[in-house]
């Protein structure tokens, strides 16, 4: 995430994930989404959740990913 931000200098970064290996990426972005995953224990509370920078989906897989992205795009006034 840090390398991509340095190289491309995006206005806003969004990361989505559902596993422990996604935690650092989600916490390093501007907006993060933890996708529900009924096949594993939920991720612990992440830095950024209390202020709403990181949110959790109620739906798993592609449905949760799509809903989260549509919500983020609307929040950024991109749709």
Automatic annotation (TrEMBL):
<dbReference type="InterPro" id="IPR023214">
    <property type="entry name" value="HAD_sf"/>
</dbReference>
<dbReference type="Pfam" id="PF08282">
    <property type="entry name" value="Hydrolase_3"/>
</dbReference>
<dbReference type="InterPro" id="IPR036412">
    <property type="entry name" value="HAD-like_sf"/>
</dbReference>
<dbReference type="GO" id="GO:0016787">
    <property type="term" value="F:hydrolase activity"/>
</dbReference>
<protein>
    <submittedName>
        <fullName>HAD hydrolase family protein</fullName>
    </submittedName>
</protein>
<keyword id="KW-0378">Hydrolase</keyword>
